């Protein structure tokens, strides 16, 4: 499990009957919610898995690759630790150029692509239009700074995920880029990016190693 956070998905695999699960994540609180002798938590990064070649029947990564700085290295590492006959399952979403690629849909539901259309100060200024003051305003500004901090999102295009996964030489079961409806792209949005990238929300890749 690459990007295992507090261990919730590792625990799910255990409940499904998997005997041994390994979870990787850089955060200090890795695995904190699900201590289990059947789960080995390894604090580290997808780009350099501290694990031997060919060890896993399944390598699974959900909602993580859009945060990983070096996408190509992460894919290569996941393929490296996969056993012959093993399956790689990755899902990256929401991609940076998609309507809520800032991961703050809860704040900007009515303002798709706000992170690509407005500057940080313009976004922060919307706090007063929303009637936010005091602690609520501070929390809002904190979220805006998080979503615009390049340390947290790799800002890669959907085409980069397709290229990086295709380059692994695995047998592809499924590769899918899920697109939002075109109607979301209003004519008054001035965003210097192709519609195909702006509408690509999710990249899913499932493949096995011969
Ligand atoms: C949105 S969370 C998803 C967690 C979990 N997979 C889920 O779906 O609930 C993204 C996770 O990616 C982790 N992450 C960020 N950079 C990473 C990296 N370079 N390698 C592995 N995990 C990373 C974060 O710490 C975070 O736990």
Characterization of the model:
There is one protein chain. By secondary structure, this protein is of the alpha/beta class. The chain folds into 2 domains: 45-97 and 153-208, Rossmann fold (3-Layer(aba) Sandwich); 105-147, no CATH class. It is built from 8 helices and 6 strands, in the order αβββαβαααααβαβ. The strands form 2 sheets. It has a 4-stranded mixed sheet with strand order 3-4-6-5. Strands 1-2 form a two-stranded parallel ribbon. Helix 5 (120-129) runs antiparallel to helix 6 (134-147). The longest helix has 14 residues, at 134-147. The protein is globular, with a radius of gyration of 19 Å. The relative contact order is 0.15. The model has no long low-confidence stretch (mean pLDDT 96). The structure holds S-adenosylmethionine. S-adenosylmethionine is lined by residues 2-3, 5, 8-9, 24-27, 45-47, 62-64, 67-68.
How many alpha or pi helices?
8
Q: Superfamily at the CATH H level of the largest domain? A: Vaccinia Virus protein VP39
The CATH topology of the largest domain comes to: Rossmann fold
Shape: globular
Number of strands: 6
Beta-strand proportion: 15-25%
Share of residues in helices: 25-40%
pLDDT < 50 runs, ≥5 residues = none
Each distinct ligand:
S-adenosylmethionine
- Succession of helices and strands: HEEEHEHHHHHEHE
Estimate the mean pLDDT confidence: 96
Supply the CATH architecture of the largest domain. Answer: 3-Layer(aba) Sandwich
Radius of gyration (Å): 19 Å
| Structural class based on helices, strands and sheet pairing | alpha/beta
Total domains? 2
- The CATH top-level class label of the largest domain: Alpha Beta
Report strand order across the widest sheet. 3-4-6-5
> Describe the biggest sheet?
4 strands, mixed
Q: What is the straight-line distance between the termini?
A: 21 Å
């Amino acid at each position: 499990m690459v990007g295992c956070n507090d261990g919730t998905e590792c625990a799910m695999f255990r409940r499904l009957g998997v005997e041994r699960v390994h979870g990787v994540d850089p955060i200090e609180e890795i695995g904190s919610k699900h201590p289990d002798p059947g789960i080995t938590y390894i604090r580290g990064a997808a780009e350099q898995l501290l694990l031997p070649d060919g060890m896993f029947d399944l390598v699974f990564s959900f909602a993580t690759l859009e945060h990983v700085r070096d996408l190509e290295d992460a894919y290569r590492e996941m393929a490296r630790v996969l056993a012959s006959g093993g399956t790689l399952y990755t899902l990256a979403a929401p991609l940076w150029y998609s309507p809520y690629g800032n991961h703050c849909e809860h704040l900007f539901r009515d303002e798709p692509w706000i992170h690509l259309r407005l500057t940080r100060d313009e976004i922060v200024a919307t706090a007063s239009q929303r009637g936010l003051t005091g602690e609520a305003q501070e929390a809002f500004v904190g979220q805006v700074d998080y979503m615009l901090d390049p340390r947290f999102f790799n800002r890669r295009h959907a085409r980069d995920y397709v290229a990086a996964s295709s380059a692994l030489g695995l047998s592809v079961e499924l590769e899918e880029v899920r697109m939002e409806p075109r109607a979301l792209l209003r004519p008054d949005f001035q965003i210097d990016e192709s519609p195909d990238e702006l509408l690509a929300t999710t990249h899913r890749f499932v493949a096995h190693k011969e």
